[in-house]
Predict the structure.
Amino acid sequence: MTDGQEHAWRQSWSTYGRELPLNEPLSSAPGEPLDLPRWFGRTAPVIMEIGSGMGESTAALAAAAPDRDHLAVEVYQPGLGQLLMRIREQGLTNLRLLRGDAVRVLTAYLGPGTLAGIRVYFPDPWPKRKHHKRRLIQPEFVALAASRLHPGGTLHLATDWAHYAAQMYEVCEGEPTLRNTAADGGWSPRPDWRPLTKFEQRARIEGREVRDLIYRRADPE
């Protein structure tokens, strides 16, 4: 990490972050999920972002929606350190960080119906065919993510890899508890509120189309 990231980590991680064991078996997970209202100091809708990277988009989204709490899950320590710097610089009080595996977080640390939204922006595309099984967006993951949304909660995906976008669409369309919010049942228009990051700008320059998918958890029948 840079000196600034290390300083932010020492000063702020104990307040804004928690580290979860990356290789801990599920059988040893805590019996109780995270107490998010206690951690945030209030009760508000919670949006979880998986793979916050260097935190540019995450901090902007949290600043733009102070009425919502934001939970960023990332394994890359320098990225979390940079996000801590953004929290301090912008005075954000509605953002908390988890260092750990997102599937483990959803499985063992968050109960059903906990979240108002889950965001997965530009996950690793694993472009080689032999590595496609490593992609995050698989039927099992989407079913798990949907179960952690309360009715009306949204799953928002974005990618600049056409093949992965097609896989995301197929998987989400196959999840019976989710409904596509696009009027034509296809790709969602890029929301104005999703920040345009340097990563996405580079993808555009290199000629890769960015596709968004937004699904809503259906109300129970």
